[in-house]
Amino acid sequence: MNILNFKFKLPEAGQSLNTVFSDPKIYITLAIILALAALFIVVKNVKLNAKIITNIAMAVALGTVLKMFTIMKMPMGGSVTLGSMIPIILIAYIYGPRIGCLSGLLFGITDLLLGAYVVHPAQLIIDYILAFSALGVAGFFKENITIGTLAAIGLRFLCHVVSGVIFFSQYANGQNAIVYSIMYNGTYLLPEAIISVIVLKIIPVARVKKEIAKTV
After folding, report:
1. What's the rounded Cα separation, in Å, for the pair 188 and 34?
2. Which of 183-187's residues contact partners 24+ apart within 8 Å by CB, and which partners?
3. How far is CA 78 from CA 35, 70, 154, 186, 215, in A?
4. Could you give the C-alpha distances from 162 to 39, 59, 73, 96, 216, in angstroms and in order?
5. Most CB atoms closer than 10 Å: which of 27, 115, 123, 139?
6. Do the beta carbons of residue 100 and residue 91 sit within 8 Å?
7. How many angstroms separate the CA atoms of 30 and 48, rounded?
8. How far is it, in rounded angstroms, from Cα 52 to Cα 72?
9. What's the mean per-residue pLDDT of the chain?
10. At what angle do helices 24-43 and 97-115 cross, to 10 degrees?
11. What keywords would UniProt list here (predicted)?
């Protein structure tokens, strides 16, 4: 089977938005999550100025565009993208885990609105909120972006595995649900992690961080 399938795919936004807003449990869950995020920003006194907000928006937009480019379509399901997590990881590295988690949260909500697959509000929270917010963990590893990248993507992987075991075990076809979920999510997230590490090794991230800091 030829899994190499580089192509650009526009998201089915209309169908996705219909999915999200046709079920009150979904959009009420989203509203609560956004309210909690706003409360977190206020309580934790997260510093957001115009420059940071602009960079977050650019990172989310770039990540969304990169996610539309598919490098490989995996046999079990899931696709390897053109490094869609890299902009969020960079934001976390530059501004720290709080801003990184906020960026990941917005990235996850954008992904949800453009390509929703929701079977339960709890699955929405795990797959789109927790999994993408986990990318902000990279901000804890200021001295080693490689370890930070692997830790962040590893936590996203763990979220998807848990979701798979709880909500999608019926697709395992008699196979152990945990093994199935690990294989399903690992086959596309492992290549994503490798691509992210390689690209971030090539990018002069320390210089990028220094240049951005000058303009804040």
Report:
1. 28
2. 183/76, 184/76, 184/77, 184/78, 185/78, 185/157, 185/160, 185/161, 186/157, 187/74, 187/75, 187/76, 187/78
3. 31, 10, 16, 9, 38
4. 27, 27, 22, 26, 39
5. 139
6. yes
7. 22
8. 33
9. 89
10. 160
11. Membrane, Transmembrane, Transmembrane helix
Q: Which residue has the higher pLDDT, 183 or 6?
A: 183
CA distance 77 to 131: 18
Q: How confident is the model at residue 40 (pLDDT cuts 50, 70, 90)?
A: confident
Token output for 5: 């399938």
- Domain layout of the chain by residue ranges: 4-215
Please choose, from the candidates 163, 113, 162, 157, the residue with its C-alpha nearest in 3D space to the C-alpha of residue 135: 157
Length of the chain measured in residues: 216
pTM for this predicted structure: 0.89
CATH classification code of 4-215:
1.10.1760.20
For 123: left if phi > 0, alpha if psi spans -120 to 50, otherwise beta; the answer is: alpha
